[in-house]
Fold this sequence. Notes:
This protein is mainly alpha-helical. The protein contains twelve helices and four strands; from the N terminus they run αααααβαββαααβααα. The protein is globular, with a radius of gyration of 19 Å.
Amino acid sequence: xxxxxxxxxxxxxxxxxxxxxAARNEPINRxxxxxxxxxxxxxxxxxxxxxxxxxxxxxxxxxxxxxxISLQPFHAFKPDGVIMFSDILTPLPGxxxxxxxxxxxxxxxxxxxxxxxxxxxxxxxEPDVTLxxxxxxxxxxxxxxxxxxxxxxxxxxxxxxxxYAIEGxxxxxxxxxxxxxxxxxxxxxxxxKTLAEAIGRIERSM
Length: 206
């Protein structure tokens, strides 16, 4: 394909494909735009909804609420990508690592992962059983967006999930996971593999 033909094709791209084309390093007629912070404090509609539903987990794990929040910036700015409103730690309860989000403190894990026994006890993720709201939210978003933007999932990377699982909360120095990396690297690698597989299961099931 010649450059001229590629540019001709890029001029015909619609908003729903632009971000995907950019991800594939294909020619596009302008850089894609999406909003990393999703809704957040800058939208009054989100602030109002947060007052009505103060629990972050309720907002992110209730499909109707998650869809409404995800679409707020889309309706306001018409970006090229719509990000599913969710929490980075969403997969953890599905493999046996429960957490709660406390206002002004963030995620708290009452039983952080510190031993081989705990890692061995983790279970394979079954998204449709333990996280049915993920599929429901994504499917509804696809219907609502109607091809006008790329719908993006949202989840923490394995290392990010591991930091919370091991530290038990947000950390400034990540001393516990660093210590495990040096003292018990095989244990940390097993945990990271389990988390990566869980993320993969979500992606393949959607």
